[in-house]
Task: inverse folding
C-alpha cells in the first residue's frame, strides 16, 4: 500500500520536525493558555475485559468498581488487581501507603511502566520523588471515571518515557449536568475516619464545574502512628459548537504517614507479623544504637533473632513520609473542520521529606541517634498535542510531547534531643548538622510520533502502524561534595521505535488481534546514584533499557458474557541493576551495570458471566514465566541465567461475584497470588496466598430531602490471612538463603469499614 506508507512517512516527518523544534524551546514558555486532553472523559459503570477493534490487549474498569465495590478512598490500582496479568500489593487495606504500593504487569515492575491522568504523565509513581506522583495524590478516587489498562503495549502517543511493559491511563470524571452536593463518610477499624464532599454547579450554557475535598485519618494497623491526608480537586469544562471543549483540572494534596517496618523472612518468624518501629519506646532504640556502636548488649527484645543477624537494622525508632503536591492541567479539543486538535499543558510541583531515625549517626555524645531525612523538590511542566484527521479509510494521528523537570534531592541529618512522637518536616524547622549529598537533576523529554490506522474489508479488518522518536536527557549537578553520587549527563535516545497491530472481526461478537511494539526507557537518576568513578567508567558503555513485545489474542462477547484470551512474548534487553554494598540507612557508593536480558512469555484469560440482571461473575487467570537470560559479575559470577524474575508470581487467579437486587448490593472477591522469589538466584522466596474481600450495601433511595442515600459495609482480608504483600521495598539481593534481607511488607489483617452516602 504505497499511499499508506507515503502518508505515514509524511506524518512522521512532520511530527519529528515538530519534536525537534520543540526541543529547542523552553517548554514552560511554550505552554499555551488553553490546552487539550484529547478525548472526553470516559464513563464506564463496571468492568470490561474486551475492547473490540483494538489491535492490542486493553481492558477497563469503571467508577462502579472503583468507588462502590471497594472501601471508599481505596486506590484505583487496587481495583485493577482483579484483571489478568496485574499484580498489585500494599501493606494497608486501601492501597494508599506509598512505601509499600507496587504494581507489576507481565513481569515488569512499576519503574518500567507508564501512567497518565487525562494524558498528563504521572511518571513511574515511585515513592522517591523523581519524575511524577502517585495517582492517589493526583486525584481523589471518587473523581475517577475510568481506568484503562494496556498490558504489554500501550497507545503509541502515551506520554511516558518508561513504558516498557504496559500503561495505565486514568481519566477524571466530568462535572454533573445537574447541580448538587454529594457526601460520603467512612468509619472503621483502627480509628479510620474519611470524609468526602463534592459540589457540582450543573450545566450553564456549556459550562460546568465541580470542587471536592477529602480528608482521611487512620491509625496504623500495627505499631505507633497514623496516616493522614487532605486533598482538593477542581474540574471545570466548557463545551461549544461541534465537539469543541476546554477543561481545567487542578489537584492539591497533603499527606503525612508513619511508616510500617520492613520485615525479612527471619525477622517475621522470630518477632512476629506485628513487629514494627519502636516509637514511642525511646529507651530500646537507644539501647540498639549503643549496642550497634559497641557499647553494651542488644536489648532482650531482639534475643529471638539469630546471633549473626544484623540486629542494629532489625528495627528503628521511627520512620515517616511527608508529601505536598500541586497539579494542574489545562486541556482542549478543537474541531478544525475535517481534523481535530488535542492539546494539554500541565504543571506539577512537589515538596516532600522521607524520615528515618538512624543509629548510624549520633546527635551528641549522650544521644546516639539522629534524624536522617531525604528531602525532595520537584517542578515539572510540559505540553502534549495531537492532530487527528481522516484521508479515505485512513485515520491519521501525529503528535508531540515535551517536558522539562527540575528535581532536587538531598540527604540531611538533624539533631534529636530525645523521645519524640510527632511527624513534621525537620527541613522547615531545623538546620541540619550534616548534609550527605545535595543533587540537582534537570531532565528534558522530547517525543514525537505518527500513526496510521486503516479500515479494510468494510471495517472487518483494522490495521495500524506507526513509530515514535524519543529523546530524554538528564543533567546532574552535585551541589555538595560527595563520594556516593556522581554528576554529569546521560541521554537515552532512539529515532525510530515502531509499533504495529491488526484486528480482524470474525463476526459481530468475535475478533482476533496481533500486535508488536518496541520501546526504550529513560535512565532517570539511577546512573548518578554511583560514585563519580563508577559513573565515568559506565557512561560510555551503557545502553538504555529496551523492550520488544508481541501479543495475540481472541475476544468474544454476547448478551450474557465477555471473554478474552491472550498470549504474549517480551524480550527485555539491557537490564540495568544498581548494587549497593551497605545497609539501607547508610549512604555509600553504588555501581550500575548492564546485567543482560529478560524473556517473558505467558497467557491471560478473563471471563465475565452475567446470566441475569444484577448478577456478574468475573474470573481471570494469568500465567507468566519471566526469566533472566544471563549471569552477571559482582565480586564474582552471580548465576542468574534461567532464574525467575524477582517479585513476579508465575500464576495468579482472581474471582469476583457481584449481585444487586431490590436496593441491595453484595460483592465477594478472592485473589490467589503464587510464590514470588526475592533473590536474583532464586534461593529465597515468599509463599503463595489467597486473600478475600467482601462488601454489602443497601440503597434507601430518597429520604428527607436527600437523594441516593445508601449505607455500605466492607471487610478486607475476610479470613484474616497473614501474608507477605510487598516485596523488594528495600531492593533485592543476589542471594539470601537464610532470609535476612529486610525487604518485605506484611499485608494488613482483617479490617471492617462502614460508609454512608447521600446527595442533595
Result:
Amino acid at each position: 500500500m504505497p499511499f499508506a506508507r507515503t502518508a505515514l512517512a509524511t506524518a512522521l516527518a512532520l511530527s519529528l520536525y515538530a519534536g525537534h523544534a520543540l526541543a529547542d524551546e523552553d517548554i514552560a514558555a511554550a505552554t499555551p493558555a488553553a490546552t487539550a486532553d484529547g478525548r472526553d472523559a470516559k464513563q464506564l459503570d463496571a468492568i470490561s475485559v474486551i475492547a473490540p477493534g483494538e489491535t492490542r490487549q486493553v481492558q477497563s474498569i469503571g467508577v462502579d468498581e472503583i468507588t462502590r465495590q471497594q472501601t471508599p478512598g481505596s486506590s484505583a490500582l487496587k481495583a485493577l488487581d482483579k484483571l489478568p496479568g496485574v499484580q498489585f500489593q500494599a501493606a494497608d487495606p486501601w492501597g494508599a501507603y506509598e512505601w509499600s504500593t507496587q504494581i507489576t504487569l507481565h513481569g515488569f515492575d512499576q519503574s518500567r511502566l507508564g501512567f497518565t491522568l487525562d494524558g498528563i504523565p504521572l511518571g513511574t509513581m515511585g515513592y522517591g520523588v523523581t519524575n511524577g506522583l502517585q495517582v492517589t495524590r493526583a486525584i481523589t478516587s471518587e473523581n475517577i471515571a475510568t481506568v484503562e489498562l494496556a498490558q504489554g503495549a500501550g497507545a503509541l502517543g502515551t506520554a511516558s518515557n518508561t513504558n516498557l511493559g504496559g500503561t495505565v491511563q486514568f481519566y477524571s470524571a466530568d462535572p454533573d449536568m445537574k447541580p448538587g452536593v454529594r457526601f460520603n463518610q467512612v468509619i472503621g477499624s483502627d480509628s479510620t475516619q474519611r470524609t468526602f464532599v463534592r459540589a457540582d454547579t450543573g450545566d450553564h450554557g456549556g459550562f460546568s464545574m465541580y470542587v471536592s475535598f477529602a480528608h482521611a485519618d487512620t491509625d496504623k494497623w500495627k505499631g505507633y502512628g497514623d496516616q493522614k491526608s487532605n486533598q482538593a480537586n477542581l474540574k471545570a469544562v466548557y463545551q461549544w459548537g461541534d465537539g469543541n471543549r476546554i477543561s481545567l483540572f487542578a489537584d492539591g494534596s497533603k499527606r503525612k504517614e508513619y511508616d510500617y517496618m520492613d520485615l525479612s523472612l527471619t525477622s517475621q518468624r522470630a518477632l512476629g507479623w506485628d513487629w514494627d518501629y519502636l516509637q514511642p519506646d525511646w529507651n530500646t532504640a537507644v539501647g540498639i544504637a549503643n549496642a550497634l556502636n559497641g557499647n553494651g548488649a542488644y536489648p532482650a527484645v531482639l534475643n529471638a533473632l539469630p546471633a549473626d543477624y544484623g540486629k542494629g537494622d532489625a528495627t528503628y525508632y521511627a520512620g515517616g513520609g511527608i508529601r505536598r503536591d500541586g497539579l494542574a492541567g489545562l486541556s482542549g479539543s478543537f474541531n478544525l473542520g475535517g481534523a481535530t486538535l488535542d492539546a494539554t499543558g500541565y504543571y506539577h510541583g512537589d515538596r516532600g521529606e522521607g524520615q528515618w531515625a538512624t543509629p548510624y549517626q549520633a546527635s551528641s555524645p549522650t544521644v546516639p541517634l539522629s534524624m536522617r531525612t531525604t528531602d525532595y523538590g520537584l517542578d515539572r511542566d510540559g505540553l502534549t498535542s495531537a492532530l487527528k484527521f481522516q484521508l479515505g479509510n485512513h485515520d491519521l494521528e501525529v503528535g508531540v510531547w515535551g517536558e522539562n523537570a527540575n528535581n532536587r534531592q538531598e540527604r540531611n541529618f538533624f539533631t534529636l534531643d530525645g523521645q519524640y512522637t510527632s511527624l513534621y518536616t525537620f527541613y522547615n524547622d531545623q538546620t541540619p548538622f550534616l548534609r550527605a549529598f545535595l543533587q540537582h537533576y534537570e531532565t528534558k523529554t522530547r517525543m514525537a510520533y505518527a500513526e496510521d490506522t486503516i479500515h479494510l474489508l468494510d471495517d472487518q479488518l483494522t490495521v495500524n502502524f506507526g513509530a515514535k522518536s524519543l529523546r530524554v536527557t538528564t543533567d546532574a549537578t552535585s551541589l555538595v561534595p560527595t563520594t556516593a553520587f556522581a554528576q554529569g549527563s546521560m541521554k537515552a535516545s532512539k529515532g525510530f521505535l515502531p509499533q504495529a497491530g491488526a484486528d480482524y472481526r470474525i463476526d459481530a461478537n468475535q475478533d482476533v488481534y496481533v500486535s508488536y511494539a518496541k520501546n526504550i526507557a529513560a535512565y532517570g537518576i539511577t546512573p548518578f546514584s554511583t560514585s563519580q568513578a563508577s559513573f565515568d567508567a559506565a557512561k560510555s558503555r551503557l545502553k538504555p533499557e529496551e523492550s520488544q513485545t508481541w501479543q495475540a489474542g481472541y475476544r468474544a462477547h454476547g448478551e450474557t458474557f465477555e471473554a478474552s484470551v491472550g498470549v504474549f512474548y517480551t524480550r527485555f534487553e539491557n537490564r540495568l541493576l544498581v548494587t549497593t554494598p551497605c545497609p539501607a540507612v547508610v549512604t555509600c557508593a553504588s555501581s550500575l551495570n548492564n546485567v543482560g536480558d529478560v524473556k517473558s512469555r505467558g497467557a491471560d484469560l478473563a471471563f465475565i458471566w452475567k446470566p441475569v440482571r444484577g448478577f456478574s461473575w468475573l474470573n481471570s487467570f494469568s500465567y507468566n514465566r519471566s526469566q533472566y537470560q544471563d549471569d552477571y559479575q559482582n565480586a564474582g559470577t552471580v548465576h542468574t541465567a534461567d532464574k525467575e524474575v524477582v517479585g513476579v508470581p508465575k500464576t495468579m487467579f482472581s474471582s469476583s461475584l457481584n449481585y444487586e437486587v431490590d436496593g441491595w448490593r453484595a460483592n465477594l472477591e478472592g485473589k490467589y497470588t503464587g510464590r514470588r522469589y526475592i533473590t536474583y538466584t532464586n534461593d529465597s522466596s515468599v509463599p503463595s496466598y489467597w486473600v478475600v474481600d467482601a462488601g454489602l450495601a443497601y440503597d434507601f433511595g430518597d429520604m428527607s430531602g436527600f437523594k441516593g442515600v445508601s449505607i455500605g459495609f466492607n471487610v478486607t482480608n475476610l479470613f484474616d490471612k497473614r501474608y507477605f504483600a510487598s516485596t523488594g521495598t528495600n531492593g533485592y539481593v543476589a542471594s539470601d538463603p537464610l532470609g535476612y534481607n529486610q525487604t518485605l511488607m506484611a499485608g494488613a489483617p482483617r479490617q471492617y469499614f462502614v460508609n454512608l452516602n447521600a446527595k442533595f
User: Anything to note?
Assistant: Residues 262 and 638 are 25 Å apart (CA to CA).
